[in-house]
Amino acid sequence: MKRTFRNEIPVYLLPLFLFFFLFCFHDSIEGGEEVKSHTLLLEKSEIHFLANDCKNKKNLLVFIHGSPGSSSDFLSYLNDKDLQNQFCILVPDRLGFGQSMNEVSVPDIFIQARAIHSALIRFLKKESLTFAKGIVVGHSYGGPVSFVFAMEKDPSISIVWKCLLLSSPIDPSLEELYWYNRLANFGFVQWILPNSWVHSNEEMYTLKSDLERLTTQLGNQTFEIISIHGENDSLVSPKNVYYFTKWKPTLNHRIQILEDENHFIPWTSFQEIKKIILSEGNQ
Which residue numbers delimit the AB hydrolase-1 domain (predicted)? Predict the structure, then answer.
């Protein structure tokens, strides 16, 4: 995965990211549902998440943000009228980010995914909500987290998942640390960086081994996977989309490359991503 300074948002690209993030908000058709904030305490952690009105919805839709990031990254989707009409939308803060224990670092895709899964399943039970089908969308580092999330099982709630990987690292052979990752690992550098940046950099140290571990645990997974990647993504190589085709050809995996697009496709290609989600939800 190619990065500059840290993992997903190098310093010199941060203004560009914010521009895309704010500029693309107008593509969303504002819905009328109130977005509410929830926090659920688990045995060893807590997960904060945002949700729309989940009553009488056809399907479940979960978004998992990248690194760094937070639930607010997906407000344009959460507030969209068309998505609200079809989905119960749940958008958590991953552990160490947003309002989910943001003072701690949890650089492990498995712990991250299982905490989110436990919290959201508890929420569904608490609200007496049942869904036969669900879509989990993960952007960048959130992609492998969403993949582990879809692999989790709960005997009391059976949901058939589809997994959308947006600009996501999956191939462990493409992961490597750079000098700026090592620099950001020094205490005196961490002292001047925001917690979210420190946590993001620490996630890079374990991502390669986490992806190798994920490969060994795939087994004969049956849920559908859709890899969507920008053709010109310089932060996470588009070559990641071919990993499953090469190493796990039995997986139900589809690929879509977006021409002339970069790493920030959830915002720069909002309408196209939204269309894919709506289409997959109707199947």
Answer: 60-158
